[in-house]
Amino acid sequence: QRGENIAIVTGTASGKTLCYNIPVIDSLLRDPQATALYIFPTKALAQDQLAGLQELLTWISTPEAPIAPATYDGDTPANARPTIRKKSRLIITNPDMLHTGIMPHHTRWEHFFVDYA
User: Fold this and answer.
1) Residue 89, Cβ neighbours under 10 Å: how many?
2) In a 3-state reduction of DSSP, which class is residue 37?
3) Which of 18, 41, 52, 89 is most buried, judging by how many CB atoms fall within 10 Å of its CB?
4) Which residues of 27-42 are buried (b: 16+ CB within 10 A; e: fewer)?
């Protein structure tokens, strides 16, 4: 929050994920227009991260600022994608989907990436 950079070095399964999830969730809760894009190298890791986020959000999410995290990858059903693009404020994806499913269709994502232009 002070705009300072930090480095975290710690062992496996020691809570590093909270180091970025908490500030991101804080921003999403404070600003209903905020969005976040998480990019993980594998779909399995993305699914694990989604499960952890959903568990964390059961404690802190509010109806006034729904976050609705979702994965957006090759396994995401085509009929679910428009809803995810419209409603989710925290998208979890991988480099392949970023290059094949998001960037080529950037006009479908204008509301999500509005401040990144």
Assistant:
1) 21
2) strand
3) 89
4) ebbeeeebbbbbebee
Q: What percent of the chain has pLDDT over 90?
A: 39
Residue 97 domain-assigned (yes or no): yes
Across-strand partners of 92?
38, 71
Encode pLDDT of 14-29 as tens digits: 878 888 898 899 889 8
How many domains, the chain? 1
Amino acid present at 107: T
Q: In the predicted model, is pLDDT for residue 8 greater than 70? A: yes
Lowest mean pLDDT among 1-5, 15-19, 23-27, 31-35: 1-5
- What is the CATH classification number for the domain harbouring 100? 3.40.50.300
Q: Which two tokens stand for residue 5?
A: 């950079």
pLDDT value, residue 56: 86
